[in-house]
Specification:
Elements lengths: L5 E3 L2 E3 L3 E3 L9 H14 L3 E3 L14 H13 L1 H6 L1 E6 L18 H15 L4 E6 L8 H13 L3 E7 L3 H8 L9 E5 L19 H9 L3 E5 L23 H11 L3 H11 L5 E5 L3 H11 L5 H11 L2
Parallel strand pairs: 3-4, 3-10, 4-5, 5-6, 6-7, 7-8, 8-9, 9-10
Antiparallel strand pairs: 1-2
Helix pairs in contact: 1-10, 2-4, 4-5, 6-7, 8-9, 8-11, 9-10
Bound molecules: NADP nicotinamide-adenine-dinucleotide phosphate.
The site of NADP nicotinamide-adenine-dinucleotide phosphate has 25 residues, from strand 10 and helix 10.
């Protein structure tokens, strides 16, 4: 077994987070609940959602949190206590049918209101990890950090975290003061490295530079979209533009050695490498949960992780 638990601040977390982005929109409630049951059964008791999932997929942004909240209600308080629940605020469109150009953002008032909404939808009295989903440069960093710290002080959040920051902005936030600071950072990350000019929309990549800032400040790294939507194993899903297949030979060699498929090997590599990154794995079927869990609990030796580390940088 690889390391079974990672920590985020004082919280122990599973070596993967279950990505629930499409729960309640393209993933029907019964399928989402089957995934959540499978995650609980396997021990993958770490859920990742946001207050805007998935407004671009026929929803308004309530759907993923609502689906999790109804599952928690159905399963009861003992199950709630066994789960680590992370949600994100800031990137919810300010008006229905709006987009990411005009979001509720991260002012003090907006954070307070959004957290109330998330707690209500999740049917819980606290969020384990509360993320600032974006970098809202319209608001002074001090105001955002103060509002997030208030949520911790009031018991609404256990830990705060950030997502989609550049190295400079992360450093600025971490050096801002004595309040509870960010304990984790969630960025886009997988084995293949996107071209520097790849158009990834609002997604911000976990670069070596960002990673170094995290390491210096003991911030846990999480990586979203680790499977590139299944492109490593599903021929009908080509790699997204901006990703080249150059380093795939090494991945397939190691996959054969450890008897995992290529996508699973990416997940195993993420948690086993010297600079670990907890994968946030999107799922729509219980088999996806079980496959990811098998991957993150498979050990890779130092030679295998080094080979993959070296190959991805060409
Ligand atoms: N912080 C942020 O800004 C941010 C941004 C994006 C995502 N996220 C988080 O990261 C999570 C994952 O993101 P993602 O959906 O882009 O990433 P992903 O993990 O790269 O892709 C997930 C998709 O891959 C397919 N898949 C899963 N397991 C598979 C398996 N064993 N074999 C083959 N295909 C498999 C499924 O597609 P099908 O369902 O189509 O079968 C699944 O929906 C989200 O749910 C969300 O929680 C955060």
């Amino acid at each position: 077994m690889s390391k079974n638990n990672f920590s985020i601040g004082r919280l122990d977390v599973a070596p993967m987070a279950v990505g629930t982005m499409y729960f309640g929109t393209t993933v029907a409630q019964q399928d989402a609940w089957a995934c959540l049951d499978a995650a609980h059964d396997a021990g993958a008791r770490f859920l990742d959602t946001a207050n805007n999932y998935a407004f671009w997929a026929g929803g308004v942004g309530d759907e993923s949190e609502d689906t999790i909240g109804r599952w928690l209600h159905r399963r009861g308080s003992s199950v709630r206590d066994e789960m680590v629940i992370a949600t994100k605020v800031g990137a919810r469109p300010a008006v229905p049918d709006g987009g990411l150009d005009d979001v509720l953002g991260l002012s003090g008032r907006a954070i307070a209101e959004q957290v109330e909404g998330s707690l209500r939808r999740l049917q819980t009295d606290h969020i384990d990890i509360l993320y600032a989903h974006i970098d809202d440069r319209r608001v002074p960093l001090d105001e955002t950090l103060g509002a997030l710290a208030d949520c911790v002080r009031k018991g609404q959040a256990r830990t705060i975290a950030a997502s989609n920051l550049t190295a400079d902005r992360l450093r600025q936030a971490l050096e801002a003061g004595p309040r509870p600071g960010y304990q984790a950072l969630q960025q886009r990350f997988t084995y293949l490295v996107p071209a520097p000019d790849a158009d990834l929309g609002p997604h911000v990549v976990l670069t070596d530079e960002v990673r170094a800032v995290c390491e210096a400040h003991h911030v846990t790294c999480l990586g979203y979209s680790p499977l590139l939507s299944g492109s490593y194993t599903r021929p009908e899903r080509p790699l997204p533009s901006g990703y080249a297949p150059d380093a795939l030979d090494a991945l397939h060699d190691v996959a054969t050695q450890v008897n995992l498929d290529a996508g699973q090997t990416v997940l195993a590599w993420m948690v086993n490498r010297a600079a670990p990154v907890i994968p946030v794995v999107g799922v729509s079927r219980p088999e996806h949960v079980r496959s990811a869990w098998a991957a993150v609990t498979t050990p890779l030796d130092a030679e295998q992780t080094r080979r993959l580390d070296d190959a991805r940088h060409g």
